[in-house]
């Protein structure tokens, strides 16, 4: 038996909206429940009825995800649906500020890579050293090493007996990076970004090989933010949330 079509051509069932975006009907219902979509109309029998505005809202949310992520995308849409446009724009601004910081970190890493040649992880069999030995090796005061630790550049462990700091071969490498980059005039926050990327890449050589992919990801994220902004503007222009 063929189900009768709704008399209002602009009204859509959850499954209709879901098929448009390759989702399940339950996902659409969940998005409405979570406030990502505005409240649906209800038929006399209690079934949800979605409109073109809901379709635009769903399209905007899905377009925001690649650039801002699920959590921020949901926060943006809930604010819009409450009519709090300024709150939504603040979330978007935070996303752009984070992208800018990531670009600055990448720029710092790219500028630093030529200086990092030859600074690699020490032999893993080498014993951890105390702060006095590390400071002497670098020609700095122990207070400087502790300052780098507070800035997140170093992650020493504590000796279980004495409680003194012990610096592993990786810590020594990171300290050498920090010392080198400080002499080059880099700020501690940028050095922290470089050291973090070296740790995650497994060394300076793998890091150098990954920079192109890193910049590509940032570019794609920026483009995704533009697409998300365009879809959100379409939704706002439809009159919802304004």
UniProtKB/TrEMBL annotation:
Keywords from the UniProt entry: DNA-binding, Repressor, Transcription, Transcription regulation
Ranges of residues in domain HTH merR-type: 17-54, 128-197
InterPro entries: DNA-bd_dom_put_sf (IPR009061), MerR-type_HTH_dom (IPR000551), MerR_fam (IPR047057)
A GO molecular-function annotation: DNA binding
PANTHER family named in the record: MERR-FAMILY TRANSCRIPTIONAL REGULATOR, REDOX-CYCLING DRUG-SENSING TRANSCRIPTIONAL ACTIVATOR SOXR
Protein name per UniProt: TioE family transcriptional regulator
Organism for this UniProt entry: Micromonospora profundi
Phylogenetic lineage: Bacteria, Bacillati, Actinomycetota, Actinomycetes, Micromonosporales
